[in-house]
Amino acid sequence: MSKFNTPRARFGLQFSLIARQWRRVMQTHLSSIGLTDTTWVPLVHLSECDGITLKALALRVGVDSSSLVRVIDALEREGLVARKRDAADGRAKQILLTRAGQRRVKAIRTELSRFEETLMVDLSDDEVETMTSALERLQLKLDDYENNNNPESSS
What we know:
Layout: H1 7-31, H2 37-48, E1 52-53, H3 54-61, H4 65-77, E2 81-85, E3 93-97, H5 99-119, H6 125-149
Antiparallel strand pairs: 1-3, 2-3
Helix pairs in contact: 2-3, 2-5
């Protein structure tokens, strides 16, 4: 086996391709029930850390704050999110899920679970737990790398 054909050497490319395909297939599935990547992702993140600033939400979602403003405006018009003044910083506003937003997230999570169950039917719970644990450790390494090697983070 050549040094470029080992599991470690293939991991990055394989992971990247699978992640893109997973997201593409998931998005196609969710769009069939009227959910777009642009709107459901911020809602799910808000359900995990409700009451955060636009900037913090943009970091979690992985988009620029300026592009997220329009999405939040649309979600607010739909009654799924609300903005309130941040008690710690009166200039900032926190974004919160409304009850309607919480119901929408519950429906999204139900659909995501169905989708994931279909794709992972041949994987045991132990295999899924092992992969999840490894990915969490990898994410910590990536966060550490990004925080220590990103020129923007040191300014």
